[in-house]
Amino acid sequence: MKELEERILKDGRVLPGNILKADSFLNHQIDPDLMQRIGETFADHFRSQGITKVLTIEASGIAPALMAACALHVPMVFAKKHGAHNIGNDFYTASVHSYTYDSDYTIIVSSSYLSSSDRVLIIDDFLANGQAVHGLLDICKKAGASASGIGICIEKGFQPGGAELRALGYDVMSLAIVESMEGGTIIFR
Q1: How far from 16 is each of 19, 72, 100, 102, 176, CA to CA, in Å?
Q2: What's the pLDDT score for residue 83?
Q3: Is residue 136 within 8 Å of residue 158, measured between CB atoms?
Q4: Bridging pattern class, strands 53-57 and 76-79
Q5: pTM of the model
Q6: What span, in angstroms and rounded, lies between the C-alpha atoms of 21 and 60?
Q7: CA 7, CA 22: separation in Å to the nearest integer?
Q8: For residue 53, what are the contacts with CB-CB under 8 A and spacing of at least 6?
Q9: Strands 119-127 and 172-180
Q10: CB 23, CB 12: distance < 8 Å
């Protein structure tokens, strides 16, 4: 998606440790017009898959996932990173390692919102090593749901997550694939 690449070049910042900050338009402050076009782009690509739910992890994946769900006219479900007293006793969990924060956490989805009849589109803002997506795939597997596609706003193509998911046979659509960030210069694939 050329528009997203241009926005990354204009407003993105490369931080030490190969961290790309897109927080002024993607995942802290959100540009709603750009986000709507991102959601429509994902929906256009995955529409023929019979998607019944869009799944993401709180909080940064919620905006693109919601816009894709709106465009597909299906519910959006987000995995919670922290347990809640009102989630009930019947839920699916998976362990996820965060590259950005170098820590592990457990994600939770109520079994009321994901079942074996669902065809799921997984959406996230970034893909690096793929741990968040693998956690969501684990949740889908535990629910018996079919993971029908993976939509990523920004993929770090120099890290293994995207290649590994594609090698496993998943349809991974990344709107912008960063090939390198050497010396703070962003190069797209």
Answers
A1: 6, 37, 11, 14, 20
A2: 65
A3: no
A4: parallel
A5: 0.94
A6: 12
A7: 9
A8: 69, 74, 75, 76, 77, 113, 114, 118, 119, 120, 121, 145
A9: unpaired
A10: no
User: Do 138 and 108 contact (CB within 8 A), yes or no?
Assistant: no
H or E element that contains 136: helix 131-143
The helix-helix angle for 2-11 and 32-46 (nearest 10°) equals 150
On the CB side of 8, how many CA atoms lie within 13 Å of its CA?
A: 25
Q: Which long-range contacts (CB under 8 A, 24 or more apart) does 88-93 make?
A: 88/112, 92/139, 92/142, 92/143, 93/139
Helix or strand (DSSP H, E) at 1: none
Instruction: Calculate mean pLDDT across residues 57-84.
Output: 92
d(CA 85, CA 138): 23
The one-letter code for the residue type at 148 is S
DSSP 80: B
| Lookup: tokens for 104 | 């592990």
pLDDT digits (tens, 9 = 90+) for 79-138: 998 766 556 678 999 999 876 677 888 999 999 999 999 999 999 999 999 999 999 999
Task: Give the containing element (helix H, strand E) for 3.
Answer: helix 2-11
**Residue 82 contacts by C-beta under 8 Å, 6 or more apart in sequence?**
none
Q: For the chain, what is the mean pLDDT? A: 93
What distance in Å separates the CA atoms of residue 108 and residue 11, rounded to the nearest whole number? 33
